[in-house]
Amino acid sequence: MIQATSQVPLIEVRNLSRAFGSRRHRIWAVDDVSFRVPHGDILCLVGESGCGKTTTGKLVAGLLRPTSGEMLFEGRNIWEMERSEFKRYRTAVQLIHQDPYASLNPMHTIYDIITAPLFRHNLVSSRAHAWERCVELFNIVGLTPPEDLLRKHPHELSGGQRQRVSVARALTVNPSFIVADEAVSMVDVSIRVSLLTMLGRLRKEFDVTFLFITHDLALAKYFAWDGRIAVMYVGSVIELADTPRLINDPLHPYTQALLSAVPEADPELTRSKQRIPLRSQDIPSLLNLPTGCRFHPRCPQFIEGLCDVQRPALVDTGDGRQVACHLVARERGMIK
Amino acid sequence: METTPTRQLPWSKGQARYALISVRDMHIEYWAERGQVKAVRGVDFDIFPGESLSLIGESGSGKTTLGLGLIRLLVKTADITRGQVIYRRNGVEQDVLKLDPDGLRHFRWQECAMVFQAAQSAFNPVLRIRDQMYETVKAHRPATRAEVNALASELLERVQLEPSRVLRAYPHELSGGMRQRVLIAMALLLNPPLIILDEPTTALDILTQRTIIDLLRALQNDLNFAMMFISHDLSLAAELANHVATMYAGRIVEYGTVNQIFYEPRHPYTLGLIRAVPTVTGGFEDLSSIAGTPPDLIDLPPGCKFHLRCPFATRRCQQEEPDLIHIGPEHAAACFYWQEVERQADRPWEEIKAPSEGDV
Predict the structure, then answer these.
(1) How would you class A194 by CB atoms within 10 Å of its CB: exposed for 0-12, middle for 13-18, buried for 19 or more?
(2) Does A101 contact B at CB distance below 8 Å?
(3) Residue A303, exposed/middle/buried by CB under 10 A (0-12, 13-18, 19+)?
(4) CA of A213: how far to CAs of A55, A165, A183, in Å?
């Protein structure tokens, strides 16, 4: 089912960067990001607000053009594609937004919302066929009873139901890749897990590959246990590894600090956690970035003359992980 | 003022007359176009000096309404239809719900401050922080600017902010985490014995959340105020609470010490909530979520309000709403089958079996 053997990854980004603002006040929201997501895989992007994870998601979904670098779909740069090819990419890659209160048109019924892409892409032959397809999709995403819900407007649905509608809408065009941007963050705790389970099922049953964007490390761990996590900091990926190792044996001081800071829903565990104190609380401004490693003003292991001078590149550690830190490179004797 | 003694709660950790605040039989309703929203339906609890109580529950469980009700900050369409909020200090008992405007102004901020959820909208956007601080103090007692500035500087330093920079700043010039810390400093201005915090860490980044949590813990240690947290985030309760109350459809359905709630939950809803939240540390865990959605507060189902989502529910639960009953030291649950919950606590959610009717 999972064809990880194919050489060309489904999604690949190479040295992707995106700037915003005028020429004088330029900020780089995404700065030289590279990763691959092979068919059937899950990659989680985690990081704090402003780290560029949503912008990366939009670049992958083709909603933003990169300022430099390439976004490849099945090995082809999407911004150099022919019209018909680009259209195929557009249907193959779908985005699920964070806010289910803003992403569904309040004037339309759920039926209108779901069927618009079906008619637009000639995926159904008649209204009866469209209705049938809606019912089918609603069963996949666990919205019951479909017949009642399809006649409703978004405001009549709960947050969890709306998010399921967003997923059903994304599924209308049989995507092979879904970018889920904080897809469960606005949903109540008690139903988050069922949404994640449903998304996980799409991966197994419909062969959907995922880019899962979240600020919540516990959710990333739960959803992508057999996938990988990339940690972003101020526009760049600073560590990328398979989930169990990233969570249990983080290499980058920022990842370590983040994991040690997460409050846990377990009193004894959370009160006995070893904390890693940072040298500063302030997240650097994108308008005035620190020299060298962007984490150096906060890093507890900062080495003067190295970390504040030279910016570490994201390099392979030799055991399948990637990390951008001078210290780790030194310890492991890696040559840059 | 002559008052009948406050009803003792069997699960309370001490005698009600030593509690800082005792809430009894509180009911709050909203008037909406569709009808009456029963947001809080008979809530009882005590908060003792220096204690921290966490109210947990999903959106629409009535926890924010309850918090606002305690300091009578509800919107006009809301009405406290019944109940008492007994506040005790220096041997004097007062019912907050019966205070006149002067008494209420004294109670708010001097006795009980609130840290609001949306740190952006809790400030006046056209006032510098030092002016907001000054106005807050001046509303309660005579004060000079120099005196307030000195006090504010000291508090800002306590919350790890630079007074010289922050006092001059307008709210929009501060980051979310800084604003939240300024709000905490403002809550402490008049040294109140009780602080209510509504989602104090929601919408903040992990490292900022950590700073706020550690700050609150240190401040409470030093100043010994009592806290009531309102949060949907279980980890905040796990971090800071002594006692936790689970709310569902306007009622407290379980009350206990933080360890009881997390390790020995006896209400099916608490059990379900705890099961639904992953932790970062450790290996992969099997989680499950509670089927269905919280009930419509305008059109509540009969019987136990959780029965439609509850794997333990029997016919009795459809007809009769259980009261919060004492089930152990400092522990109370509103479930007919709390012993059954104990028996099946280790089973996966999907494999839980409802007890047969004659079991209890």
Answers:
(1) buried
(2) no
(3) middle
(4) 10, 19, 8
pLDDT higher at B33 or A177: A177
Give pLDDT tens digits for A277-326: 888 877 788 888 899 999 999 999 999 999 999 999 999 998 999 999 99
All structural domains of chain B with their residue ranges: 19-241, 251-359
CATH placement of domain A11-110+173-249: 3.40.50.300
The one-letter code for the residue type at B293 is T
Residue A188 to residue B277, Cβ atoms within 8 A: no
Interface test with A, best of B281, B288, B306 (most A CBs within 10 A): B281
Q: A127-141 and A189-206 helices cross at what angle (nearest 10)?
A: 120
Cα torsion through A108, A109, A113, A115, rounded to 10: -120
Task: Give the number of other Cβ atoms within 10 Å of residue B273's Cβ.
Answer: 26
**What ipTM does this complex have?**
0.86
Q: Are strands A228-233 and A209-214 parallel, antiparallel or unpaired?
A: unpaired
Residue A310's SS3 state is: coil
Q: Are strands A68-73 and A11-20 parallel, antiparallel or unpaired?
A: antiparallel
CA distance B270 to chain A (A): 10
Report the alpha-carbon distance of residue B162 to residue B67 in Å, rounded: 31
State the average pLDDT for chain B: 91
CA B132, distance to chain mean position in Å, is: 25
Tokens of A39: 């068919």
Going by C-alpha positions, the residue among A252, A244, A215, A213 that lies closest to residue A332 is: A252
- Domain ranges across chain A: 11-110+173-249, 250-336
Dump pLDDT digits (tens) for A97-154: 888 888 999 999 999 999 999 999 889 999 999 999 999 999 999 888 888 899 999 9
Token pair in block for residue B229: 């947290």
Determine the Cα–Cα distance for residues B26 and B350; give it in Å rounded to an integer.
35
- Tell me how many residue pairs between chain A and chain B have CB atoms under 8 A apart: 120
A189 touches chain B (CB under 8 A): yes
Q: What is the DSSP letter of B107?
A: I
CA-CA distance, B252 to B334, in Å (whole number)?
A: 8
Which burial class, exposed, middle or buried, applies to B4 when counting CB atoms under 10 A from its CB (0-12, 13-18, 19+)? exposed
Which of A155, A190, A199, A264 has the highest number of chain B CBs within 10 A, making it the mutation to test binding with B? A190
Residue partners of A255: CB distance under 8 A and separation at least 6: A231, A238, A239, A246
CA distance A18 to chain B (A): 23
The 3-state DSSP class for residue B69 equals: helix
Can you give the pTM of this predicted structure? 0.89
Distance CA A311, CA A313 (A): 6
Please give the class, per CATH, of domain B19-241: alpha beta
Residue B104 token pair = 């209420």
Residue B281 touches chain A, beta carbons under 8 Å: yes
Per CB-CB distance under 8 Å, the chain B contacts of A160 are 293
CB atoms A193 and B160 under 8 Å: no
